Amino acid sequence: MSGLPVMAIEPLTIRNLSSTPIELKILERFGAPAAADSAVGVSYITKNITSLWRIPNSSSSSAPPTPAQLAEHADVFTHDDVSIRVDAFATIKTDIRPPKVSARETLRLTFENDGERYRLDIPCSTYSSTTLTPLTPNPRFNYTAVYHTQQSHLTLFSSANLQAWMRELKDETPLSALSIPGTHNSPACHRALPSVRCQAVSPQVQLENGVRFFDIRVQPGSPQDTSKDSLVLVHSVFPIALTGSKYFGDLVNRIYDFLDRNPSETVVMSLKREGTGNSTDAQLSRILKTHYAGDTDRWYTAPHIPTLGEARRKIILLRRFGLDESLKQEWNGAGWGINAETWADNTPNGTCPSGDICVQDFYEVLDTENIDKKITYCEDQLDRSAACVCALPTMGAGGPSGRQPIYLNFLSASNFWNVGCWPERIAAKLNPAIVDYLCRKHNSSDQGKKVGDGCTGIVVCDWVGNNGNWDLVRCIVGMNAKLELREKMPLSR
Fold it and tell me: What is the pTM of this model?
């Protein structure tokens, strides 16, 4: 064993991205940490660790034990009282040795906030994220943790109710100041060509789990007769399902139902005309106005970025199509819908002529090597959004001035001719990379970049919720914490 190289293990880093300070109070280690560093007693250590992880009647021998099972079956155990305070939005590098994955150690951390204690075992048992277990009844706080084993990095977020997370923000909050999870080709969740399918779950499930931006592409079914409301959901020139056409009206009704049950929420809908045939943008705009978005109780169609109060329980129209002449006169001649009609194609950093949208939409990933370039562009867009400081009513006359655009950040990309660059394959690499970036580097002064509210803008994803993994959505929503804290501060004079 002496001839094997020894890899340095970084001590545990804790980053607190919640709006309250938290203190680590108890550190418990299950396994055999002291003896595991030497060759002495290896067989004894292995026996203990094996018995710790292979618990009788467990449903899976590879599944990590529950906290109760740890306490019952661990033969080697250490307990240390500590006091490590981590302020809100602060990062602390401790001297705590992280759990050894190779030895299947478990490190149990007990945190305290205002007299209430919360417990976490790392490494986590599912994906990257887990919810801290409250040790007091009726806890006032809720925390979600993301642990990155390779970097020995633990990030704590305030847990959000993903079904209604917008209710924590004030009506005066501009939409452009929010961190919003979105999906690309949102209804493309059906059995389809591999390069066409972009989502693992239905739009309804996406909404219930925090997604608030839908990217929709439609083809008018009867473009010459705008008295008919037929809009077929498509992805480029392809239908989104091999089993038959899916329709825009059904999707809209599901959104209405969700918003009726969750009136604090809003859904931003980016709408674009695609598909085959000879339909025009003008025809699409007339169909949409006549049959759908003419209902001002259900749709927000003003040509400017709304506040949450203006948009709750409504669909916000972000328009990626041209208007019929009649609609150009809406809103006292200012037009209809937030204007995202044009932006530079395949751009890593572009702005719509309206100035309302700053977009990253580099999508031509021709080979797998270009995925790293795409990740860099996504991170750069996150940095641009994070540096913004929203002008809030509580800031008084001394606050920042100027309009904050919506930062639209597409994580999606594909290449029809390369299996390794189909949407699901790219998302499998890109989504975890962005989770890692948000947890360890986003809006961090350690990176030498300007620190602002930490807003992510609208992050448009492929294949979220795959096998129940909502880590990326949770991280994006969690980035609203700093803005929420600022909104609760007293008025500055």
Answer: 0.90
